[in-house]
Amino acid sequence: MSDPAVSVQPTMRRPKRWDVPFGADMTMDVVARLLTIEPFSKIDPDRFVTPVTLDGVLLNDTRLVRFQPGDVVVRHGDYGASAFLILTGEVGVVAGDGLKVFLGQPEPKRRQWFAGLRRTLLRKRGREVRDEDSLRPAEGVGVRGAGAHVRIFLQDVSAILDRFGAGHLKQGDLFGELAALGRTARAATVFATTEVELLEIRWQGLRELLRRDPQLKCHIDELYRRNALLTHLRATALFSHLTDDELRDVKESVKFERHGDFDWYGSYKRMRGAGASERLADEPLIAEEGTYPDGVILVRSGYIRVSKKHGSGERTVSYLGRGQWYGLDEIAESWGKDEQVPMKRSLRGVGYTDVLRVPTSVVETYVLKRLDAAAIAQLKRVGGDADLSDDDAGAQEAVRLAKSTTLLEFLVENRFINGSAAMVIDLDRCVRCDDCVRACASTHDNNPRFLRRGPKIDHYMVASACMHCYDPVCMIGCPTGAISRDQKEGQVIINEPICIGCGTCAGNCPYENIRMVEVRDRSGKYVLGENQLPIVKATKCDLCADLIAGPSCQRACPHDALVRIDLQEPEKIFNWMDR
Region 556-575: what's the mean pLDDT? Predict the structure, then answer.
């Protein structure tokens, strides 16, 4: 007879990759149907290695979804981790944020301090009330469904199509793959114009398909050129003044280029201890200082280092991100002259970079001949390739940037430009009181999610806390999709129930901001797996996603020494340092 005083060690089965399929209703009959449809019908199943088979990917990493006319499939600005293949029906596409007011994404109204004080002094006591107008849905938008199937729908699809000039995608087209693979926000709003059936493919499955079938990448590029490139060009300030016919001419001339590895974190880790010249040589050269500018380079995803020769080496001047471009300055300066102005700076891919190259002749025909000097100067600044010495105001800014060259080098070399919410600490203000650590611990059941240490520059430190990257490579290779983006806010979060503790995310994180912890129960005992070893889970900062007030670490700092900041915007960093 066992002694009741002796407690039993808790045990549980370790989760496996496909324990939770993406679509609970997927069957082998549906898979058989999919295998008769392009592009799956052209994929050789022998390229897949057991246990990750082609039918296994379709069965477990895809699901069927259906939408009624007007239903919104994806919204511009929302984060997603899946692509969609149209099986039947058609959808409309509106690039940019033109539909955001319709779709519950209005700009927040900033209340002036006096209005806020007046509201506080005249605040009514008792029950909370709402003005009736605030309870009415936006005009032209409805809601249908219940529970997890609630959807926003546009009530007058034809009016939306006429007003916004939406593009169309039909059976066999694929969309959403760039956001899924690049781990970025959606670039357009897509809504059903007829009854549609879509195959939603989560990014793990899409990655497997692309890895096993090189032709699929070419297929996706061709679909993008045919269906989405026109919308992309229309939303780019450089070509927004053109007619649809002119945009089609530009579209046919665009060249697709990919530089670096999609899994760029591996080369970054390998080169982290190398010298500056070695690291620079490891970055793929996109355009070289002193050479002929053969076109404007549009950044579709990733980052580009912009550098200039300095002594025997190079100095980082700036960097470009998604939506920016380079090359207009040199082409405009050369236009109409016998002597060509060479590239003033070199461009290198920082990690994986996806770019579009628009030939010089096309830029001359459709940009330089159509716009005046003031408009072109503005486009240079918007794109990121303006020569800051052109005017007095620019010269002042150039001086400021020159003083910040060391900071820019630090951000680029450490890939901190990837961080949308990095923890930066002013060590001159920090008194090491650890209030930030205690606040984090109290918010997360006594488990602080960061370490108050990390790389330093001058008297500033980037702490070891999840930066919620624009390109969160921790998501690459996660076999269950346990680590993903929040659909609304974009934080990178971990779904612990389906985390199998494989450590892939922790190994991939270039900044070592994810830790594997052994799980304990409430009594403090380790929870054991089937092999009688402790179950481990990934843990990291979640930006206090469940707190309305935001990250508790920042709010707890009594000396304003800590900030969560977007390192892709150096101006914000300079302003915070100069406060």
Answer: 88
Q: Which residues contact 301 (CB under 8 A, 6 or more apart)?
A: 178, 182, 184, 322, 352, 353, 354, 471
Structure-token pair, residue 13: 């089965």
pTM (predicted TM-score): 0.67
pLDDT digits 0-9 by tens, 352-387: 788 999 999 999 999 999 999 899 988 888 887 765
Burial zone of 353 (CB within 10 Å; 0-12 exposed, 13-18 middle, 19+ buried): buried
Percent with pLDDT over 90 in the chain: 29
Q: In the predicted model, is pLDDT for residue 97 greater than 90?
A: no
Rg (CA), the chain: 26
Q: What is the CATH number of domain 28-106+138-225?
A: 2.60.120.10
Report domain extents, the chain: 28-106+138-225, 250-405, 413-577
What CA–CA distances, in Å, run from 482 to 92, 323, 368? 31, 29, 49
Q: Quote the tokens at residue 573.
A: 């960093």
Within 13 A of 534's CA, how many CA atoms are on the CB side?
A: 11
Q: What number of other Cβ atoms are within 10 A of residue 362's Cβ?
A: 18
Closest CA to 319 of 470, 197, 543: 470
Domain 250-405 falls under CATH 2.60.120.10: yes
Cα dihedral 227→232→233→238 (10° resolution): 180
Q: Do domains 28-106+138-225 and 413-577 have the same CATH topology?
A: no
CB 153 within 8 A of CB 68: yes
Q: Report the alpha-carbon distance of residue 428 to residue 384 in Å, rounded.
A: 33
Report the C-alpha gap between 235 and 296 in whole angstroms: 16
557/172 Cα distance (integer angstroms): 53
From the options 3.40.50.2300, 3.30.70.20, 1.10.287.1490, 3.40.50.720, give the CATH code of 413-577: 3.30.70.20
Residue 570: exposure state from Cβ atoms within 10 A (0-12, 13-18, ≥19): middle
d(CA 386, CA 329): 6
Q: Which residues share a beta bridge with 315?
A: 308
